[in-house]
Amino acid sequence: MERARSLLTGFGFREVITYSFISPQALLDLQIFPEDRKGRGLSIQNPLSEEQTIMRTTLVPGLLHTVRSNLHRQNLDLKLFELGRVFFPRGSEELPEETEFLGGVLSGLREEESWAKARAECDFFDLKGVLEGLFEGMGLPEIRFLGDARIPFLHPGKACRVYLGEKTSGSWGN
């Protein structure tokens, strides 16, 4: 994970660390329902607040909260990533399954405006380029992107699954 962190900071991203506790409503807002493994968060017996009653099953709610906070403060040009654990219940076992994930967000201008560079907003293809550079830098050349309109919180025409060989390793899009 240190290699991924180094590459992303080299691409101009800033690392954020968000809470491991979220609200069940955050998953519902993303249209992640209990039928999906990610829609079944592990309940916390003594939560810090009503907004933090389950362990996160995805990094997306925390990243979006960070984006929202920045946008409210007029920080519009964002390149953020988080390397963090998500937690899945294991049925009757005491300890949850913990898995390390990488999440990221691009927002605003691609580069600072100047006399030599026209104003250009970040888009779907900027993120694709970041992912290609990340996987290449990590020595993972067999990456493929396949469109998938079934990712609930992404635009159906701009959502992809990431495959390493034949294995799904994540998703991305607008």
Q: What report would you give on this structure?
A:
With 174 residues, the protein is an alpha+beta fold. It is built from four helices and eight strands. It has helices spanning 2-10, 24-29, 60-72, 124-137; strands spanning 14-15, 21-22, 54-55, 78-88, 97-107, 143-147, 159-164, 167-173. The strands form three sheets. A three-stranded mixed sheet has the order 1-4-5. A three-stranded antiparallel sheet has the order 6-7-8, covered by helices on one side. Strands 2-3 form a two-stranded antiparallel ribbon. Strand 4 and strand 5 form a beta hairpin. Helix 1 (2-10) packs across helix 4. The chain is globular. The two termini are 24 Å apart. The relative contact order is 0.15. The mean pLDDT is 92.
Structural features:
174 residues; alpha+beta; 3-stranded antiparallel sheet; 24% helix
So what's the overall shape?
A: globular
Compute the number of strand runs.
8
Structural class, from secondary structure content? alpha+beta
Average residue pLDDT: 92
Span between N and C termini? 24 Å
Number of helices: 4
- One letter per element, helices H and strands E, the order comes to HEEHEHEEHEEE
Low-pLDDT residue intervals, each spanning 5 or more residues? none
- How is the largest sheet built, in terms of strand order? 1-4-5
Oligomer: single chain
Strand content: 25-35%
Helix content: 10-25%
* Major β-sheet annotation: 3 strands, mixed
Q: Rg, please?
A: 17 Å
